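Lab meeting, action items carried over

1. Structure of the two-component assembly. Owner: GW. Status: complete.
Input record:
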Amino acid sequence: MSVLVVGSVALDSVRTPNGSVEEALGGSASYFSLSARHFTDVQIVAVVGEDFPPQSRELLVAKGIDVGGLSTQPGRTFRWTGEYGADLSYAKTLATELNVFAAFHPALTPAQRKAETVFLANIDPELQLEVLDQVESPRFVACDTMNYWITSKREALLKVMRRADVCLLNDEEARLLSGDAQVPRAARLLLDQGVKRLLVKKGEHGAMLFGHDERFFCPAYPHEKLVDPTGAGDAFAGGFVGYIDSARTHGALPLRQAMICGTALASLCVEAFSPRRLAEITREEIAERVKVIRTLAHMPDVALD
Amino acid sequence: MSVLVVGSVALDSVRTPNGSVEEALGGSASYFSLSARHFTDVQIVAVVGEDFPPQSRELLVAKGIDVGGLSTQPGRTFRWTGEYGADLSYAKTLATELNVFAAFHPALTPAQRKAETVFLANIDPELQLEVLDQVESPRFVACDTMNYWITSKREALLKVMRRADVCLLNDEEARLLSGDAQVPRAARLLLDQGVKRLLVKKGEHGAMLFGHDERFFCPAYPHEKLVDPTGAGDAFAGGFVGYIDSARTHGALPLRQAMICGTALASLCVEAFSPRRLAEITREEIAERVKVIRTLAHMPDVALD
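Predicted assembly:
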């Protein structure tokens, strides 16, 4: 079992009311892989510049992540600078420097083309389609995106979404893409347009899966020690897709279990800056967090005569 | 078993993208009692003016609600006018006419003073304290409030909240009252100030109970046919408090069951304008909605070796 992730590896500068970091390891593929590796093997396909710190690459390798597809190109690594307000609910982007990422075209090796599980992290939907055209017969594909692609490349994005088994969006993105301000109706509209399953991330509230015959709500862990929300969505995706890959099936039951794992990983990720916690947490910590989340929404019988 | 509710009975004019109503039955005590009556007996303590429509009083009576404490005073009934935008997430108040409600001072009869379960709906916290000083030995007290009282009568409100078994607030109110933008920390701060249990209503996302030793998240029903959200919070409170009264205990298990019932009643309430659905729904419809909500967040075991 292994997951192929195609996305960004970046250097992030982040300010929050709790402190800040400069040029720390970031990017969707970094967060995803450091999360998913707790459940399965992970191969990264991404690009960095010549300035990418060797210790960041070594961290990924030390955590068992296959960085054979992490290509180094002449130029600087993708950089992102963002800032959070007091409620830490969303990041204000202060600067984005695409650098080597601007010319990124994922070229999969013959081995990567045989990937059974694929996560298309938030990149240009045309690149996501290039990846889908290269993988031969994936068992499970999940994709993520962002508001920028929804407005600029809507048709390509919808093509990707129709080919994915699960599409991750946050609630604002679901509203924007569907044109409906109410999330359950937004989900219905997207399902009616051929999307198989929509996984709507609601930040501090939780996440909800909308399928044609299935709906599942998993509450977020009610954190009192939130430090840096950067990467929470990709850590969620890592736990979710990593679990599905390890389960080798994506029926209703493993989808629920995978959402709980994703929620646990996201909640652990945000306890420190950057993917630091994802790198250090143990299986026991994950199991404990999973237990707390399951208990939080445990639904007793209600006898109504 | 019976619940005493002290709150407002009003005439509401409401506009939504789905239509509008003029001077329909409204007010926290109306929504609460029409919801709670599905679980237990309800007595209203409130005031209306001479213009209160006889058919509205008759509706309450027909639904088994004790309106002996619904006093008629010279003048006009409390009126509220509000409007919702496309996402139906919150009401913009266009006009409030207190009318006879401005001079309301709840005076309980000897029978009402023996109430075992009390719901202090959203009224001036000084009036809520007057009620608490009149009831003799309630088994269970719940209270609600709004941003206006949080800013104008904070100390009186905190006194009420410390005397209640469960305090209902929405997430914005919890932030405003605590001064902390993150809800789990806001809840902790309020518990540290002597509040026994906080029930944070998160609208479309659900509701979360924060106690000293217990936390429970109940997701909202993902409505695709939301018509008018007016009264959803009071319908929730009615299902919640009504269930607790019928269970005659408020341990961790009945609190969870009560939150599921509150969620079900709120979701049924919003399917039509005014408390129309609360007046017509059957026990079977409630049981069916409870089942859907329980299934929505059913948490399977997750085996992590």
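2. GW to write a short summary for the group page. Key points so far: The mean pLDDT of chain A is 96. Chain A has twelve helices and 13 strands.
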